[in-house]
Amino acid sequence: MPIPAPNLYPPFNIIRLSHVDFGVRDLAASKAFYVDTLGLQITDEDDSTVYLRAMEERGHHCMVLHKSTEPHVKALSFKVFDESELDKAHDWFKSQGHGVDWVERPYQGRTLATHDHLSMPIEFYFKMERLPPIHQKYALYKGVKPLRIDHFNCFVPNVDEAVGFYNEIGFRVTEYTEDEESKRLWAAWTHRKGGVHDIAFTNGTGPRLHHTAFWVPTPLNIIDLLDLMSTTGYVSNIERGPGRHGISNAFFLYILDPDGHRIEIYCSDYQTVDPDLEAIRWDLKDPQRQTLWGAPAPKSWFEHGSVFDGLDVSESNLGASPIIAP
Ligand code: DHY
Fold it and tell me: What is the complex's ipTM, to 2 decimals?
Protein backbone atom coordinates (compact mmCIF):
# COMPACT_ATOMS: atom_id res chain seq x y z
CA MET A 1 0.00 0.00 0.00
CA PRO A 2 1.34 3.49 -0.71
CA ILE A 3 1.78 5.77 2.26
CA PRO A 4 -1.15 8.16 2.71
CA ALA A 5 -0.95 11.83 1.73
CA PRO A 6 -0.23 13.91 4.83
CA ASN A 7 -3.31 15.12 6.70
CA LEU A 8 -2.39 18.80 7.09
CA TYR A 9 -5.65 19.77 8.84
CA PRO A 10 -6.20 17.02 11.43
CA PRO A 11 -9.24 16.98 13.75
CA PHE A 12 -7.14 18.30 16.65
CA ASN A 13 -3.62 19.68 16.99
CA ILE A 14 -1.01 17.49 18.68
CA ILE A 15 2.24 19.37 19.35
CA ARG A 16 4.57 16.51 20.20
CA LEU A 17 5.08 13.39 22.24
CA SER A 18 5.42 14.24 25.92
CA HIS A 19 6.08 11.41 28.32
CA VAL A 20 5.93 7.73 29.11
CA ASP A 21 4.84 5.98 32.30
CA PHE A 22 6.69 2.73 33.08
CA GLY A 23 5.79 0.11 35.65
CA VAL A 24 9.07 -1.04 37.23
CA ARG A 25 9.74 -3.77 39.82
CA ASP A 26 12.48 -2.07 41.82
CA LEU A 27 12.37 1.72 42.04
CA ALA A 28 15.88 1.94 43.51
CA ALA A 29 17.32 -0.09 40.62
CA SER A 30 15.45 2.07 38.09
CA LYS A 31 16.69 5.25 39.74
CA ALA A 32 20.26 3.95 39.63
CA PHE A 33 19.77 3.44 35.89
CA TYR A 34 17.81 6.54 34.84
CA VAL A 35 19.22 9.08 37.31
CA ASP A 36 22.75 7.98 38.26
CA THR A 37 23.66 6.41 34.91
CA LEU A 38 21.66 8.20 32.20
CA GLY A 39 21.48 11.54 34.02
CA LEU A 40 17.75 12.33 34.08
CA GLN A 41 16.72 14.75 36.84
CA ILE A 42 14.26 13.83 39.59
CA THR A 43 11.42 16.37 39.80
CA ASP A 44 9.36 14.56 42.43
CA GLU A 45 9.33 11.21 44.15
CA ASP A 46 7.68 9.21 46.89
CA ASP A 47 7.77 5.54 47.89
CA SER A 48 5.92 4.38 44.80
CA THR A 49 6.54 6.92 42.03
CA VAL A 50 9.43 8.89 40.55
CA TYR A 51 9.03 11.80 38.10
CA LEU A 52 11.91 12.64 35.78
CA ARG A 53 12.80 15.31 33.26
CA ALA A 54 15.70 15.81 30.84
CA MET A 55 17.95 18.87 30.84
CA GLU A 56 16.19 21.05 28.24
CA GLU A 57 12.67 20.26 29.36
CA ARG A 58 10.54 22.90 31.05
CA GLY A 59 7.57 20.63 31.66
CA HIS A 60 7.55 18.69 34.95
CA HIS A 61 8.15 15.20 33.53
CA CYS A 62 9.04 13.22 30.44
CA MET A 63 9.10 9.91 32.31
CA VAL A 64 7.14 8.50 35.24
CA LEU A 65 8.34 5.35 37.01
CA HIS A 66 5.81 3.63 39.21
CA LYS A 67 6.40 0.58 41.36
CA SER A 68 4.74 -2.48 39.92
CA THR A 69 4.87 -6.25 40.38
CA GLU A 70 5.41 -6.74 36.64
CA PRO A 71 7.10 -4.43 34.14
CA HIS A 72 4.67 -2.69 31.80
CA VAL A 73 3.90 0.57 30.05
CA LYS A 74 0.91 2.43 31.47
CA ALA A 75 0.46 4.89 28.60
CA LEU A 76 2.17 6.98 25.95
CA SER A 77 1.37 10.68 26.36
CA PHE A 78 1.13 13.56 23.91
CA LYS A 79 0.74 17.31 24.37
CA VAL A 80 -1.91 19.20 22.40
CA PHE A 81 -1.82 22.90 21.51
CA ASP A 82 -4.39 24.23 23.99
CA GLU A 83 -7.51 23.31 25.93
CA SER A 84 -9.85 23.61 22.95
CA GLU A 85 -7.71 21.10 21.03
CA LEU A 86 -8.02 18.73 23.99
CA ASP A 87 -11.79 18.97 23.80
CA LYS A 88 -11.63 18.37 20.06
CA ALA A 89 -9.49 15.28 20.71
CA HIS A 90 -12.07 14.01 23.21
CA ASP A 91 -14.90 14.52 20.74
CA TRP A 92 -13.03 12.92 17.85
CA PHE A 93 -12.07 9.75 19.76
CA LYS A 94 -15.62 9.48 21.10
CA SER A 95 -17.12 9.90 17.63
CA GLN A 96 -14.85 7.09 16.38
CA GLY A 97 -16.08 4.75 19.12
CA HIS A 98 -12.89 4.77 21.21
CA GLY A 99 -13.33 4.82 25.00
CA VAL A 100 -12.62 8.24 26.48
CA ASP A 101 -11.95 9.14 30.11
CA TRP A 102 -10.92 12.32 31.90
CA VAL A 103 -8.22 11.22 34.35
CA GLU A 104 -6.27 12.86 37.19
CA ARG A 105 -2.56 13.08 36.53
CA PRO A 106 -0.33 14.93 39.01
CA TYR A 107 1.30 18.08 37.63
CA GLN A 108 -1.00 18.07 34.58
CA GLY A 109 -4.20 19.90 33.78
CA ARG A 110 -7.19 18.07 32.33
CA THR A 111 -5.97 14.81 30.82
CA LEU A 112 -7.75 12.61 28.31
CA ALA A 113 -7.09 8.86 28.46
CA THR A 114 -8.11 6.92 25.37
CA HIS A 115 -6.88 4.18 23.01
CA ASP A 116 -5.63 3.95 19.48
CA HIS A 117 -6.98 1.54 16.83
CA LEU A 118 -5.16 -1.37 18.56
CA SER A 119 -6.33 -0.46 22.09
CA MET A 120 -2.89 0.92 22.92
CA PRO A 121 -3.35 3.36 25.84
CA ILE A 122 -2.59 6.94 24.80
CA GLU A 123 -3.17 10.13 26.76
CA PHE A 124 -3.45 13.79 25.80
CA TYR A 125 -3.11 16.94 27.90
CA PHE A 126 -2.48 20.62 27.16
CA LYS A 127 -0.91 21.94 30.35
CA MET A 128 1.83 20.63 32.61
CA GLU A 129 3.50 22.39 35.55
CA ARG A 130 6.44 24.42 34.25
CA LEU A 131 9.81 24.25 36.02
CA PRO A 132 12.72 26.72 35.95
CA PRO A 133 15.18 26.14 33.09
CA ILE A 134 18.22 24.01 33.95
CA HIS A 135 19.80 23.67 30.51
CA GLN A 136 22.60 26.05 31.55
CA LYS A 137 23.06 24.60 35.02
CA TYR A 138 26.05 22.66 33.77
CA ALA A 139 26.91 21.37 37.23
CA LEU A 140 23.77 19.22 37.02
CA TYR A 141 24.71 17.44 33.77
CA LYS A 142 25.49 13.75 34.28
CA GLY A 143 25.61 10.44 32.41
CA VAL A 144 24.71 10.76 28.74
CA LYS A 145 23.49 14.37 29.30
CA PRO A 146 19.95 13.67 28.08
CA LEU A 147 18.42 16.84 26.62
CA ARG A 148 14.84 15.82 25.81
CA ILE A 149 12.56 12.92 25.05
CA ASP A 150 12.55 12.43 21.27
CA HIS A 151 10.25 9.61 20.21
CA PHE A 152 8.42 6.35 20.80
CA ASN A 153 8.65 3.30 18.58
CA CYS A 154 5.92 0.64 18.79
CA PHE A 155 5.66 -2.92 17.54
CA VAL A 156 2.40 -3.31 15.62
CA PRO A 157 1.05 -6.29 13.67
CA ASN A 158 0.08 -4.17 10.65
CA VAL A 159 2.16 -1.07 9.94
CA ASP A 160 -0.08 0.06 7.04
CA GLU A 161 -3.06 0.20 9.41
CA ALA A 162 -1.08 2.01 12.13
CA VAL A 163 0.12 4.63 9.65
CA GLY A 164 -3.49 5.01 8.44
CA PHE A 165 -4.79 5.64 11.96
CA TYR A 166 -2.03 8.01 13.08
CA ASN A 167 -2.15 9.84 9.72
CA GLU A 168 -5.80 10.65 10.46
CA ILE A 169 -4.75 12.44 13.65
CA GLY A 170 -2.03 14.36 11.88
CA PHE A 171 1.19 12.34 12.14
CA ARG A 172 3.14 12.75 8.87
CA VAL A 173 5.41 10.03 7.48
CA THR A 174 9.07 11.03 7.03
CA GLU A 175 10.69 7.68 6.15
CA TYR A 176 9.41 4.16 5.63
CA THR A 177 10.59 0.64 4.89
CA GLU A 178 8.64 -1.33 2.33
CA ASP A 179 8.72 -5.03 1.57
CA GLU A 180 9.36 -5.00 -2.18
CA GLU A 181 7.42 -8.24 -2.79
CA SER A 182 4.24 -7.63 -0.77
CA LYS A 183 4.37 -3.82 -1.11
CA ARG A 184 3.45 -3.70 2.55
CA LEU A 185 5.05 -1.34 5.00
CA TRP A 186 7.53 -3.02 7.31
CA ALA A 187 8.19 0.10 9.41
CA ALA A 188 7.32 3.81 9.30
CA TRP A 189 8.46 6.97 11.07
CA THR A 190 5.84 9.69 11.68
CA HIS A 191 6.07 13.12 13.29
CA ARG A 192 4.23 16.17 14.63
CA LYS A 193 7.08 18.28 16.00
CA GLY A 194 9.28 18.67 12.92
CA GLY A 195 11.89 15.94 13.46
CA VAL A 196 11.99 12.50 11.87
CA HIS A 197 9.54 11.06 14.39
CA ASP A 198 7.39 11.42 17.44
CA ILE A 199 6.12 7.88 17.00
CA ALA A 200 7.38 5.10 14.73
CA PHE A 201 5.92 1.68 13.99
CA THR A 202 7.83 -1.55 13.50
CA ASN A 203 6.37 -4.80 12.24
CA GLY A 204 6.08 -7.30 15.10
CA THR A 205 3.94 -8.75 17.85
CA GLY A 206 1.95 -5.90 19.19
CA PRO A 207 0.94 -3.46 20.22
CA ARG A 208 4.02 -3.32 22.42
CA LEU A 209 6.46 -0.50 23.05
CA HIS A 210 9.69 -1.12 21.17
CA HIS A 211 11.56 1.81 22.70
CA THR A 212 11.56 5.36 24.03
CA ALA A 213 14.32 7.65 22.76
CA PHE A 214 16.22 10.55 24.31
CA TRP A 215 18.09 13.19 22.34
CA VAL A 216 21.67 13.85 23.52
CA PRO A 217 24.11 16.64 22.58
CA THR A 218 26.79 14.72 20.64
CA PRO A 219 27.88 11.17 19.66
CA LEU A 220 30.70 11.53 22.21
CA ASN A 221 28.14 11.53 25.02
CA ILE A 222 27.08 8.11 23.75
CA ILE A 223 30.69 6.84 23.83
CA ASP A 224 31.01 8.20 27.39
CA LEU A 225 27.82 6.37 28.40
CA LEU A 226 29.18 3.13 26.95
CA ASP A 227 32.37 3.53 29.00
CA LEU A 228 30.29 4.24 32.10
CA MET A 229 27.84 1.37 31.60
CA SER A 230 30.55 -1.16 30.81
CA THR A 231 32.43 -0.40 34.04
CA THR A 232 29.49 -0.02 36.44
CA GLY A 233 27.71 -3.35 36.02
CA TYR A 234 25.56 -2.56 33.00
CA VAL A 235 27.53 -4.22 30.19
CA SER A 236 24.74 -6.75 29.53
CA ASN A 237 22.20 -3.89 29.26
CA ILE A 238 23.90 -2.70 26.06
CA GLU A 239 21.88 -4.17 23.17
CA ARG A 240 22.76 -2.53 19.84
CA GLY A 241 25.20 0.07 18.57
CA PRO A 242 26.68 2.56 18.74
CA GLY A 243 26.09 3.34 15.10
CA ARG A 244 24.61 5.67 12.53
CA HIS A 245 21.08 4.91 11.33
CA GLY A 246 20.39 4.98 7.59
CA ILE A 247 16.80 5.96 8.33
CA SER A 248 16.86 9.32 10.20
CA ASN A 249 20.66 9.71 9.85
CA ALA A 250 20.84 9.84 13.66
CA PHE A 251 23.70 8.48 15.74
CA PHE A 252 22.28 5.83 18.07
CA LEU A 253 22.66 3.35 20.91
CA TYR A 254 20.03 0.95 22.30
CA ILE A 255 20.14 -0.08 25.95
CA LEU A 256 17.76 -1.96 28.24
CA ASP A 257 16.72 -0.70 31.66
CA PRO A 258 16.62 -3.09 34.67
CA ASP A 259 13.08 -4.22 33.67
CA GLY A 260 13.91 -4.64 30.01
CA HIS A 261 12.28 -1.39 28.82
CA ARG A 262 14.37 -0.41 25.79
CA ILE A 263 15.83 3.09 25.60
CA GLU A 264 17.40 4.56 22.50
CA ILE A 265 20.00 7.26 22.92
CA TYR A 266 19.61 9.38 19.80
CA CYS A 267 21.64 12.22 18.40
CA SER A 268 21.00 14.55 15.53
CA ASP A 269 18.33 13.82 12.97
CA TYR A 270 17.03 16.50 10.60
CA GLN A 271 14.25 19.08 10.24
CA THR A 272 10.98 17.96 8.68
CA VAL A 273 8.58 20.88 9.19
CA ASP A 274 7.77 21.44 5.50
CA PRO A 275 4.23 20.23 4.86
CA ASP A 276 5.29 19.04 1.39
CA LEU A 277 8.37 17.11 2.56
CA GLU A 278 8.59 13.90 0.52
CA ALA A 279 8.88 10.75 2.63
CA ILE A 280 12.01 8.65 1.98
CA ARG A 281 11.46 5.03 0.95
CA TRP A 282 13.80 2.21 1.98
CA ASP A 283 13.75 -1.38 0.75
CA LEU A 284 13.48 -3.98 3.53
CA LYS A 285 16.41 -5.80 1.90
CA ASP A 286 18.74 -2.82 2.24
CA PRO A 287 20.89 -3.46 5.35
CA GLN A 288 22.02 0.18 5.41
CA ARG A 289 18.51 1.37 6.29
CA GLN A 290 19.08 0.27 9.86
CA THR A 291 22.76 0.92 10.31
CA LEU A 292 24.42 3.01 7.63
CA TRP A 293 27.69 1.20 8.33
CA GLY A 294 26.09 -2.17 7.54
CA ALA A 295 26.15 -3.92 10.93
CA PRO A 296 22.96 -5.97 11.45
CA ALA A 297 20.74 -5.48 14.49
CA PRO A 298 20.65 -8.44 16.94
CA LYS A 299 17.65 -10.81 16.98
CA SER A 300 16.47 -9.44 20.35
CA TRP A 301 15.92 -6.03 18.70
CA PHE A 302 13.23 -7.55 16.44
CA GLU A 303 11.56 -9.57 19.16
CA HIS A 304 11.80 -7.98 22.58
CA GLY A 305 9.37 -5.24 23.62
CA SER A 306 7.43 -3.88 26.61
CA VAL A 307 3.78 -4.84 27.09
CA PHE A 308 1.10 -2.27 27.84
CA ASP A 309 -0.69 -2.60 31.17
CA GLY A 310 -3.65 -4.96 30.87
CA LEU A 311 -3.23 -5.45 27.12
CA ASP A 312 -2.89 -9.07 26.19
CA VAL A 313 -0.78 -9.55 23.09
CA SER A 314 -1.65 -12.95 21.71
CA GLU A 315 -0.32 -14.94 18.79
CA SER A 316 -3.11 -13.48 16.65
CA ASN A 317 -1.40 -10.14 16.87
CA LEU A 318 1.81 -11.41 15.33
CA GLY A 319 3.06 -9.14 12.62
CA ALA A 320 2.70 -10.07 8.99
CA SER A 321 5.48 -11.99 7.33
CA PRO A 322 8.38 -11.24 7.26
CA ILE A 323 8.19 -10.60 10.98
CA ILE A 324 11.97 -10.54 11.31
CA ALA A 325 14.02 -8.55 8.88
CA PRO A 326 16.21 -10.69 6.60
C1 DHY B 1 15.84 3.31 12.80
C2 DHY B 1 15.41 2.88 14.06
C3 DHY B 1 15.14 3.82 15.04
C4 DHY B 1 15.30 5.18 14.79
C5 DHY B 1 15.71 5.60 13.53
C6 DHY B 1 15.97 4.66 12.55
C7 DHY B 1 16.16 2.32 11.75
C8 DHY B 1 16.46 0.94 12.26
O9 DHY B 1 17.46 0.74 12.92
O10 DHY B 1 15.65 0.06 12.01
O11 DHY B 1 14.75 3.43 16.27
O12 DHY B 1 15.06 6.04 15.80
Answer: 0.98
The 10s digit of each residue's pLDDT in 92-125 is 999 999 999 999 999 999 999 999 999 999 999 9
Identify the CATH number of the domain in which residue 171 sits.
Answer: 3.10.180.10
Same domain for 149 and 126: no
User: For residue 247, how far is its CA from the centre of ligand 1 (angstroms)?
Assistant: 6
Ligand 1 centre to CA of 180 (Å) is 19
Same domain, 225 and 114: no
Residue nearest to atom 7 of ligand 1 (CA): 290
Residue 154 lies in a domain: yes
- Ligand 1 centre and the CA of 139: distance in Å? 32
Residues framing ligand 1 (Cβ under 6 A): 153, 213, 245, 247-248, 250, 264, 266, 290
Give the number of the atom of ligand 1 that is nearest the alpha carbon of residue 289.
Answer: 7
Q: Both 162 and 189 in a single domain?
A: yes
Instruction: Kindly state whether residues 195 and 240 are assigned to the same domain.
Output: yes
E strands within the chain? 14-24, 41-45, 49-53, 63-67, 72-80, 101-103, 111-115, 121-125, 148-156, 172-178, 185-191, 199-203, 208-215, 238-244, 251-256, 262-267, 280-283, 306-307
Low-confidence ranges of the chain (pLDDT < 70): 1, 314-326
Buried-state track 62-78, b at ≥16 Cβ within 10 A, e below 16: bbbbbebeebbbbbbbb
Residue 249 CA, ligand 1 centroid: distance in Å: 9
- Residue 37 lies in domain: 14-130
Q: What is the best residue among 215, 251, 286, 290 to mutate for testing ligand 1's pocket, by most ligand atoms within 8 Å of CB?
A: 290
